[in-house]
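Reference record:
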Amino acid sequence: MRMRMNLGFSMFVMSLTITSVVDWTSGSTKIKERSCGLTVAAVVICGLADGLVAGSLIGSAGKLPRQYMQAVFAGTASSGIIISILRIITKASLPQTPKGLQISAHLYFMAATIFLLCCIVLSNLQYKLPVMQHYQQMLPQENTLCSGTKFWAVAGQIKGPAFGIFIIYVVTLSIFPGFIAEDLESKVMKDWYPILLITVYNFADLLGKSLTAFHVLQSITKAIWASTARLLFYPLFIVCLHGPKWLKTEVPMMVLTFLLGFTNGYFTSVLMILTPKSVPFSESELSAIVMTVFLGFGLVGGSVLGWFWIL
C-alpha cells in the first residue's frame, strides 16, 4: 500500500506539472498543436492516481476503527471548502479576463501541489503510528494480491451497500456541479450565483461527513434505503427549474443544494464506516476497496447523466 500511495501522489504531481507547463509554453505553435493531447493525458494520469490513492487510503482505513474512515471522508469534504474559498478570493481579487483567469488557475495548481507534497511526507510517516503498527500485525501474513474471484466474492457480500454508494454518486454527479453551474441564473447574484451554490454544497457535504463523528446510523439497510430515496432530488430540482416563479428564486435553490450536499456527505460516510465492519476483519480492507470501485462507477454514471441533462 505504501508503494501505491507514493506512486499515486507522484502521478498527481506529474499531472498538475504537465498541465501547468503546457499553459506556460502555449505561445509555441508546436505546443499549441499538442496541448489538447497532453492535457487529456494529464487527466488520464490524474484519474489513475486518484484510483491508486483513494483505493489504498480507504482500504487502509477500513481496517482501523471507524473514526479513521470518518476522518478520511471529512478530509475529502474539506478539500471542497478550500477550493470554494480559493475561488471566491480569486474572483473577488483578480479581473475576469483571460490573464486573470490564467493566474487564478495557476494558484489552484500551486495550492494542490503544496498539499500533495505534504501528503507524500505524511503518508510515509503514518506507518510509524502505533495504531497502524498494531493493526498491521493483526493481518494474516500472506500474499496480499487479490484475485478477481475474491474481489467479486466480497462484492457479493456487500452488494447492498455497494449499490447504495453507487446510487448516491449517480444522483449527486448528475445534478452537481453541471446543473447548478449551467442551468441556473440569478439577476441579483449574477455570475456569483453558481460559485455560492457550489460553496453551499461543499459546506453541507463537510457538515454531513463531520456529523458521523458524533452520530452514525447503525442500520446499513436504512442507510441504503435513504441513499436510494435521494432519487427524489430529480423531481425536486426539475420543479425548481420549470415550476412556479417563487421556486426559481435563490433561497429554495440554496436549501435544496444544501440538502443534496448534506445527504451526500452523511450517507457516504455512514456506508463507508459500517460496511468494512460488516465483514470478517481479513476482508475489511478489500470491502472498502470494493466500495471505492462502486463509488467510482457512480461518479462515471452520474457525470454521463449530468452531461445529457445539460444538453
About this structure: The two ends are 41 Å apart (CA to CA).
